[in-house]
Every structure is written in C-alpha cells, then in structure tokens.
Amino acid sequence: MIGRLVPVIVFVLLGVLLAFGLRIADHKTEIPSPLIGKPMPPFELPVLGQPDRVLTNEDLIGEPFLVNVWASWCPTCRVEHPYITELARSGAVRVIGFNYKDELSDAQAWLRRFGDPYELTLQDYSGRYAIDLGVYAAPESFLVDADGTIIFKQIGAVTPEVIENEILPRIGK
Amino acid sequence: MKQLTRLALLAATLLLCGALAAQTETPKVFDSEEQEARFKDLTMELRCVVCQNQNLADSDAPLAQQLRGEIYDMLQDGKSNEEITGFMVSRYGDFVLYKPPVQANTLVLWAFPITMLLIGAIVVAFSVRNRSRKLAAAQKKGSA
Q: Is A127 an interface residue toward B (CB < 8 Å)?
C-alpha cells in the first residue's frame, strides 16, 4: 500500500518544487539587499556638473527621498524615465538622481534629451560609492526615509506598479 | 600587393585590440606568495554579482574587475579574510558567498543533500531486505 503511494508523493513534491521555481524565476537574478533597514552608507559626492558642490548624507536627510541610479549607457533607464519624471512632478517624494559610471558630457546630454526631473543628481564617476550601496546594475532605486534609513530597493525599472504598490505606501501616501 | 597591405593592416588592428584588451586591468603585484594565494582563494569563493554564475576570479565584468581591486587593496591594508568577505556580504548579502554559512535560512540548502542521501540509503536497505526475504522464501519453496 505504502509502496504504491511513493510515486504519488514524489510526484507531488516535484510539482511543489517546480511551482516554487516558476514563482521565483522572474526574480532569480535579483539579489535581496542586506541594506534594507540600515542607514544609507555615508557618502561624499559632487553634484553632476558642479564639481565644487560636494554633498554628504546630512544634506539629503530630513524628508523621504528616492535615489534613482541611472546612466546614459543604460537602456532600461530610458524605459523608466517617464515614470520617474511623473513621480518627481507629483511631489509625492523627492527624487535624487545618481549618475553611475558615466562621462559628464554623456550624462548631461542624456538629461537634455530625456528631461531632468531630479532635485539634484549626484555623480559617482568611479562607481566606488555604488559598491557601498550594493549596486550591481542600472537602473536601481533606493527609497530612504526621513531618518536616512533605506526602506526599499527596486532592482530594474521603476514602473507605475512599483510606484503604486511599493514606493507610495512606504512613505504613507 | 593591395591585398597584402590590407592583410597587414588587419593584423596590426587585431594586435592593437589585443593590447588594448589586456590593458584594461593592470597586473597585481603581491607582497608575498601567501597573499597571492589568499587573493586567489577569496576571488574564487566570491560570486560576481553581475554575471551570477561566475566567480570574481573568472568574470570580466567591469564591476568584478573593480571588486578584485577592492579585495587587493584590502589585502594590502592587512585585512583578514573574514573582514574581506564581511565587506562583500554587508553590501551584496550572503548571495555572494559560494560557501554560505550554516544558519537558519540556509539550513535547507545544507541539510538537503544529506537528507536525500539518507532517504536513498533507507530505500535501498528496504528493497534489498525485501528481495532477499523473497529470495529466501522462493528457495524454501524450491527445496521443499
């Protein structure tokens, strides 16, 4: 009796495993950030196009903000840019640009072409601070609360769904 | 003659490409063989987060090159292996470790192969016993 049930049990277990695999397949290249719930790592970065204006964490903390990591060489950044723009225009949250490993002239041309919705854009030319943030691709976006704690990370494009379901609820909007 | 010139030009271009590609990462000079061995071990055990099925040692991704540089700098600063893997884990999570630590959320990962082996052993033991019993019974019948 038990012997006959064994194949059925094995089949069901394999089915569960497959279902689980399919569920995570869409997200399997996303690495959950260990920085969620931790303060944004200390930085000292110039504002894009203003090399003398160097900002640190204290200059940003106070109100929640979204750090949007982008680069002119990043095709998906163009896809999300209209939604980032819309979010910034809505005034629901401050949107800070984070220009990642980009040439200044390319970055500025990109902003001229697609529009500059950012309150300001930090420039990480070497990509060294991006390592502290655990950035491994662009676009990525970090939601930081009023205390300077990272509360959410979006890997890949910010979409209307992500804004609606992940970003706005976390800042009480 | 024209063809020869073209061929020479092609060869020169290819050579130049090779030289440029080789130039992207400066060879690392280590203080000791022991330090070099540690660098190799660390980059073999750490995953490249961009091309996720490669380790840091094998990957040509720019981020992997940069992270190799960070690891090299930390070794030069006299950091321990634990401090260096800690640096990586605090940024990218346990995911970067090809040898993740045994802890609550990795228990399934570590216990699974052993559990499967045990289940297999039990199944084999049962079927062997069953078969030998049947064989013994058949022999009894045959001799009777």
A: yes
Nearest CA to CA, how far is A91 from chain B (Å)?
30
- Of residues B25, B24, B43, the one with CA closest to residue B35: B43
Q: What is the CA radius of gyration of chain A?
A: 20
Query: CB distance B66–A136 less than 8 Å?
Result: no
B130 three-class SS: helix
CB A151 within 8 A of CB A35: no
Helix (H, G, I), strand (E, B) or coil at A146: coil
Q: Token pair for residue B121? A: 């052993």
The per-residue pLDDT string of chain B (144 residues; one tens digit each, 9 = 90 and over) reads 567 667 666 666 655 555 555 445 778 899 999 999 999 999 999 999 888 889 999 999 999 999 999 999 999 999 999 999 999 999 999 889 988 888 888 888 899 999 999 999 999 999 999 999 998 888 887 765
| Parallel/antiparallel/unpaired status of strands A121-124 and A94-100 | parallel
Kindly report the pTM of this predicted structure: 0.78
Cα A71 versus chain centre, distance: 13
CB B95 within 8 A of CB B85: no
Length of chain B: 144
Alpha carbons A84 and A50: distance in angstroms, whole number: 23
The secondary structure of residue B48, as a DSSP letter, is P
Phi, psi of B76 (to 5 degrees): -65, -30
Q: Is B50 on the interface with A (CB under 8 A)?
A: yes
Which regions of chain A does DSSP assign to beta strands (E)? 44-47, 50-56, 65-70, 94-100, 121-124, 140-144, 150-155
The Cα–Cα gap between A140 and A96 comes to 12
Tell me if ipTM is over 0.85: no
